[in-house]
Design a protein that fits this description.
alpha/beta; seven-stranded parallel beta sheet
């Protein structure tokens, strides 16, 4: 149960939600002044908008370094309906790394996953099993994900590949890929955070 409270100190005025089941929230976390309840108790939402993916998608994480990126991808993958998450190379897994668990918020228990030492060998096996490989990468042959609708029609089940935050997708996986997709960038940076980029691509591919 949450309440909206506001600091009574005029030069602070911090307004924030307080979870009353965890702590009383009587004093401002910024300046220490007393907090007043300004909105009647509200219940935290338990369910989002329900949907059903229009395409089967599995995901291969190729040597993701960050446990926090991996955990965030777990949570998004569960939300978008990914069938399976393959953790390859040095990608941390929730069994061995508590930071993954912390960021995944339980999605690591709900979503099927497995660990594999060689992403290229796994990619070949999945390709042989009928999966079309889609790499998310800023490579020369990349196509904007928003211009690729016609190329994705009729492809069937997809394996979405997300690569290392610095090195990108393994060249061996790029050679196996049926399509390389990129997110258009407007600002000065060349790419997005791996977990953020995955979220955009996963929802686009699953619900288009």
């Amino acid at each position: 149960m949450f309440e909206i409270r506001k600091c009574t100190r005029p030069d602070c005025g911090l307004r924030l939600p307080i979870n009353t089941t965890i702590h009383c929230g009587d004093f401002c976390p910024r300046c220490g002044a007393p907090l007043n309840r300004v909105v009647t108790p509200i219940q935290a939402p338990q369910f989002g908008v329900r949907g059903r993916p229009t395409r089967r998608v599995r995901v291969l994480l190729d040597n993701i370094r960050s446990a926090y990126n991996t955990g965030a991808i777990f949570r998004t993958a569960d939300g978008v309906g990914v069938e399976h998450l393959y953790l390859c190379g040095i990608t941390p897994n929730p069994r061995d790394n508590t930071a993954v668990q912390k960021t995944a918020l339980g999605a690591e228990v709900l979503l099927p996953w497995s660990a594999h030492p060689d992403a290229c060998a796994l990619g070949q096996d999945l390709r042989d099993a009928g999966y079309k490989i889609i790499a998310l990468e800023t490579a020369p042959r990349a196509v904007s994900i928003f211009d690729a609708d016609s190329r994705l029609v009729g492809l069937g089940p997809l394996l979405l590949v997300v690569g290392n935050e610095k090195a990108g997708v393994d060249p061996g996986l790029l050679e196996l890929s049926d399509l390389v997709l990129a997110l258009p960038m407007v600002g000065s940076k060349a790419s997005l955070n791996a977990a953020v980029a995955f979220g955009v691509a996963a929802y686009r591919l699953s619900f288009m």
